[in-house]
């Protein structure tokens, strides 16, 4: 039997009721919502940036291709944490004063774009050359070929890796706590700073992250099963009759 | 009668290696021209030069009375609208139903109202004997059916010239007949076409003239009856014997 003092220390180290309190507190729920929307918004920005970069990498102009490479070099070659702090602390010196949320989405989104570009490019490349040649022979312009032939097919290919990126983004978003954005990690940290209950606060934040990532992994699995079940129907592409403007 | 297409002195090199050594080819409206010749003789390259999928190194291509060999890049798509092409590997757009494959270019390139384009697409599916396959996706169709949809897709742009690049080479033997039958019907209804094929039987049945290419030049050209008579150059005779062996 353990000595009484030891038992006391274990009990004081972890109070399940406190964990439950935090889990259902409005502060943590609010923080989880922030984590969720910052991740979604950053992913959306990353998606748009990634698409522009991916198309730019396939552009005939060498200047555009070089500019894309410079972007990738910059954003992949420096820590995202540095980019985040840079956006928060250096941009104001140039007159660009953004609230913490905006800095978070900007930095995470621009960084994500550099990685999303690679996924989208592999998707674009996976669409056979013959498909483009056939479209060209019909008299379509290059931009139309990209819009109507290549991207719809590429999109289907890149859905699984984009799901992975999203789960990564949920976790990456914890970084924005350093610029004072009220997301899960910062909320846990600040709550603990008042009462030193790190075990409970961090566990509460961890459970929220797990809940979010589990939810999205399940969604991703369902989506992939759905895509695999109907090989003929390119689910994300134009359903029959949808090429109407 | 003025030729529909008059190519003269077509040279084409890839990386300094000449593939076409000054090819002359004339096609009159309503003619069905079959291009025969050993593989590597430049038949497919010639077809791709004719609709500007490959720029010629030198030479002249008069199509519908105008020089097209030096068409500026921005206007190439307009020329291609007038020339349909059918590929060895069909290259139907994998994410679209048969009907949408056919209706896409008229809608996007010629701004035909979608309802009308679909109506025309259905009529074209009738013409290639696949009225029941409108909503099928390419991977739900046999090779022969895919190729017939591809022919309908090319016809949808109402081209004045059709190019067939080994349209039956990728097909299982039992499907060759259905595709050749559609091509023959087209030729009989007066569609001007240039067909690269190894199907000697098709050449006999459908061609008005046969052109024999060898080592990047037109080695022999004759009316179908003459071409398959006994009075042919020795090289052609050897090729025909080999093909029919």
The chain-level structural class of chain B is alpha/beta
What number is the mean pLDDT of chain B? 94
Gyration radius of chain B, rounded: 18 Å
Task: Please identify which CATH superfamily of chain A we are dealing with.
Answer: MetI-like
Structure description:
The complex is a heterodimer of chains A (245) and B (245). Helix content of chain A is 76%, strand content 0%. With 245 residues, chain A is mainly alpha-helical. Chain A has a single domain, classed as Orthogonal Bundle (MetI-like fold), CATH 1.10.3720.10. In chain A, α3 packs across α6 and α4 packs across α6. Chain A is flat, with a radius of gyration of 23 Å. The C terminus of chain A is likely disordered. With 245 residues, chain B is of the alpha/beta class. The chains are: A mainly alpha (245), B alpha/beta (245).
Can you lay out the helices and strands and say which pair or pack?
The complex is a heterodimer of chains A (245) and B (245).
Chain A: H1 4-13, H2 16-23, H3 26-57, H4 62-76, H5 80-89, H6 100-126, H7 129-137, H8 142-172, H9 184-195, H10 198-229
Chain B: E1 5-14, E2 17-27, E3 32-36, H1 43-50, E4 58-63, E5 66-67, H2 76-80, E6 83-86, H3 98-110, H4 114-127, H5 143-155, E7 161-165, H6 173-188, E8 193-196, H7 200-206, E9 209-214, E10 217-223, H8 224-227, H9 234-244
Parallel strand pairs in B: 3-8, 3-9, 6-7, 7-8
Antiparallel strand pairs in B: 1-2, 1-4, 4-5, 9-10
Could you list some keywords that capture this structure?
heterodimer; A: 245 residues; mainly alpha; MetI-like fold; flat; B: 245 residues; alpha/beta; 4-stranded antiparallel sheet; 37% helix
